[in-house]
Design goal:
Largest sheet: 4 strands, mixed
Helix content: 55-70%
Oligomer: single chain
Strand content: under 5%
Structural class: mainly alpha
Radius of gyration: 37 Å
Mean pLDDT: 85
Low-confidence stretches: 1-19, 93-123
Number of strands: 6
Strand order of the largest sheet: 1-6-5-2
Distance between the termini: 91 Å
């Protein structure tokens, strides 16, 4: 049945030649872990049911989607509980050997240790289930699931956020002309992401990856009647296709590289095997480096890394629930999860351990600053959050680039809650004022929308990284993981990435500043819109409070080791259950926490808040009172007085001119010559060929008519007629009507016949 769920295959590597590969996986485990494919299957079936029966249902099919995702969330909770038990207490039989024995590379033990305090025993094995799909040329292709800590964590996050978005959407898109269509694709989108996180092999992951992209195209362009919306959907789709070429090439390289390292096999799509081969040194570093660079292209497009991030802010054209789902827990974190899942390849390919810079870390660090700066000049509240998402995704990629795997996944976990809270909060605001423009249509909304204001503030504080909310713990763990501090702790990391530490610190200040600006323009000052805004209904506010609650307390799941105020049972629990401890995961170090770094980073955040608060809450507020109207910026601010500030603002307002580069230079520069070439081919080749064919046919028809039809066919017919007419005239002479003439003819004929018989006989 799981073959119906999954849509890809993995080449089997049953024959390992000289030895077996140390994977750290088992086919045993709890029923929920072995049948995790049911979780993505439920929303997939919901998609089909809504399409066929949704319009006949009392609530337009939304009840089907909510029920399916709700059941999937319950199954995810049970799967999480089963994994917690399996992680520490499983005592099944390990199905893969503990070492790799290969003549070319020697023996590689599975003993790189566990910084969480346990060895690599069978108690931590991932649960691996596959079924044969088909065989060709002696190669067996399988489909299946790989369930471990990161997969279980993502199942919980995706199903929970998706469930809350489904409930929220019943109010937000009520009365929409394509209400049923919206919930159908919302379910398929959730199913695609759930399939991606449990994929057992890279080809299966690739299919789910592309299905996520297709669903995002349909949801971003939900209101396709307006050209900007359809353009945004196309931009997202095409930009992602650019990066996906890298994914195709990278997966292909790893397939053949694994085949070369495993004697007797053609190749392997297996994630566990590929990672284990990379960790053991069996794969060429050149192959790993090239594959890692190709896969990074896919990460840059899907997860909005500089310079392929331009689609993500435009994707705000879709309904706000879609923005929350895409930018909080699903599509944009697919690239981050792919790095985490294939971490053995990236860790060895980029040589993350013991280094001070690499491509992944630099791209992530640069993206954090690029996204944060762009958020300052936006007047659309959703675009502020979109650029904030780009910045935070850069944080995650940077963390993975410096070897802080657990910190990156923990930030993904906490970010899903506070960013979903902020996006849904922006939707609640827009629902009340019928606009997303903070400068023209918002202001002073804290009085009219107290629930939205309070939850938005909680999400803002968590995003800014102030203690004790969730964002503080995950952000601080990333900064420590750079290993670039070394003052009263903050060492023993995988390298000394001091540049990345500086980028992370700068981003922390920028994040606090632009979110302070966003809060002021939305909730403070005087209301600048029209009508009378009011608080949203419970189907909107209840999900906001649930997400706000998680934004406060989710950070306590991974308190630093040795933190005196935290019970020992809460110290590094997230890392204990989520970080894989198996042969397919590289041996990484975990930096010791640093109180000095935590204090300094908090001061940096407070400086960002203070600078923005002084500008808006003091200077702009005073200017508003003096002018007798609600202002959003100073009339004689820095951009009017300082040329350098004005140049910087112009650069940011034009989004670094990347859209001009892509649209005005690349696209238009391509479309013009291509269009002219196509026109010439059409006129001089295609049309000329058609015309020549027609002219030739006319000439051939004339020849056939004049020479063959008139001279030959008609001549033969006419000659036959003349011959028949002459014969008839002669016969008429014989046919005289006299009996004696007929008797003479008969006698002559008999004589001739008798003569013939005499001669023959």
């Amino acid at each position: 049945m799981s073959a119906l769920l999954t849509l890809a295959a993995s080449a089997s590597t049953a024959a390992h030649g000289a030895g077996d590969l140390a994977l750290g996986i088992t086919e045993g485990g709890n029923w929920f872990l072995r049948n995790v494919w049911l979780i993505p299957l439920l929303p997939a079936l919901s998609f089909v049911a809504i399409l066929f029966f949704g319009k006949r249902m009392p609530r337009g099919g939304s009840e089907i989607g909510i029920a399916a995702v709700g059941i999937a969330f319950v199954l995810a909770l049970l799967t999480g509980a089963a994994w917690i038990d399996h992680r520490d207490n499983f005592h099944g039989e390990e199905v893969h050997a503990a070492v790799v024995v290969d003549e070319a590379h020697g023996a590689h033990g599975d003993d790189h240790g566990d910084d969480h305090g346990e060895g690599h025993g069978h108690a931590s094995l991932a649960v691996h289930q596959t079924v044969t799909w088909f065989q060709t040329n002696g190669v067996e292709f399988t489909v299946g699931t790989l369930v471990d800590g990161p997969a279980v964590m993502m199942l919980l996050v995706v199903t929970l956020v998706s469930l809350l978005v489904h409930v929220y959407s019943t109010d937000y898109v009520a009365g929409d002309r394509r209400y049923t269509h919206f919930f159908a694709f919302l379910s398929l989108f959730s199913a695609s992401m759930l399939l991606l996180v449990v994929s057992e092999n890279t080809l299966q992951l690739l299919c789910a990856w592309e299905l996520v992209g297709v669903c995002s195209f349909a949801l971003i362009g939900h209101w396709w009647e307006e050209k900007p919306n359809s353009d945004a959907a196309l931009k997202a789709f095409l930009t992602n296709r650019v990066g996906d070429m890298g994914l195709l090439v990278g997966v292909t390289i790893l397939f053949f590289a694994a085949g070369a390292a495993l004697p007797g096999t053609f190749g392997s799509f297996s994630i566990a095997e590929t990672n284990a081969l990379a960790n053991s040194g069996a794969l060429s570093h050149t192959a790993l480096l090239v594959a890692s660079c190709c896969l990074m292209a896919a990460v840059m497009s899907k997860s909005g890394q500089f310079f392929l991030h331009t689609w993500l802010p435009d994707a705000m054209a879709g309904p706000t629930p879609v923005s929350a789902l895409i930018h909080a827990a699903t599509m944009v974190v697919a690239g981050v999860f792919m790095i985490a899942r294939m971490y053995g390849v990236f860790f060895e390919g980029f040589q993350i351990g013991g280094s001070s810079i690499n491509l992944m870390a630099f791209i992530g660090g640069l993206t954090t600053i690029v996204g944060a700066c762009l958020a300052f000049v936006q007047r659309d509240i959703k675009k502020v959050l979109a650029y904030s998402t780009i910045s935070q995704l850069g944080y995650m990629v940077m963390a993975l680039g410096v070897g802080a795997w657990t910190a990156a996944m923990f930030h993904l976990f906490t970010h899903a809650f506070f960013k979903a809270c902020l996006f849904l909060g922006s939707g609640s605001v827009s629902h009340a004022v019928h606009s997303f423009d903070m400068k023209s249509d918002m202001g002073g909304l804290r009085k009219d929308m107290p629930h939205t204001y309070r939850t938005f503030m909680i999400g803002t504080i968590a995003l800014a990284g102030l203690p004790p909310l969730a964002g503080f713990w995950s952000k601080d763990e990333i900064l420590v993981g750079t290993g670039g501090w070394g003052l009263m702790g903050g060492t023993d990391a995988n390298g000394a990435y001091t540049l990345m530490l500086g980028m992370g610190m700068l981003t922390a200040a920028l994040t606090a500043a632009y979110m302070t600006r966003c809060v002021y323009l939305t909730f403070f000052g005087e209301f600048r819109g029209h009508g009378h805004p009011h608080e949203s209904g419970p189907r909107i506010t209840v999900p906001l409070w649930i997400l706000a609650f998680l934004a406060v307390f989710a950070g306590f799941l991974n308190m630093p080791k040795g933190f005196q105020l935290a019970p020992k049972g809460l110290q590094e629990r997230f890392g204990h259950f989520v970080e894989p401890v198996a042969g397919y995961f590289p041996a990484i170090h975990h930096a010791r926490p640093s109180w000095s770094l935590a204090i300094v980073s908090t001061i940096v955040v407070l400086c960002g808040v203070g600078a923005a608060a002084w500008y808006y809450f003091v200077k702009v507020e005073a200017a508003s009172k003096a002018a007798g109207t609600s202002l959003t910026e100073l009339p004689n601010g820095p951009t009017t007085r300082w040329p350098l500030a004005r140049m910087g603002h112009t650069l940011l307002a034009n989004r670094y001119y990347l859209d001009h580069l892509y649209n005005g230079v690349v696209a238009d520069g391509t479309k013009g010559p291509v269009a002219r070439l196509a026109n010439r081919i059409n006129q001089d080749v295609i049309d000329r060929t058609v015309d020549l064919t027609g002219e030739t046919a006319v000439k051939a028809g004339t020849i056939v008519y004049e020479k063959i039809d008139q001279l030959v066919v008609d001549g033969a017919v006419n000659a036959s007629g003349r011959g028949s007419s002459g014969a008839g005239e002669e016969l008429r002479k014989i046919n005289s009507g006299k009996v004696q003439s007929y008797a003479a003819i008969l006698f002559a004929a008999a004589t001739v016949l008798a003569g013939v018989l005499i001669v023959i006989v």
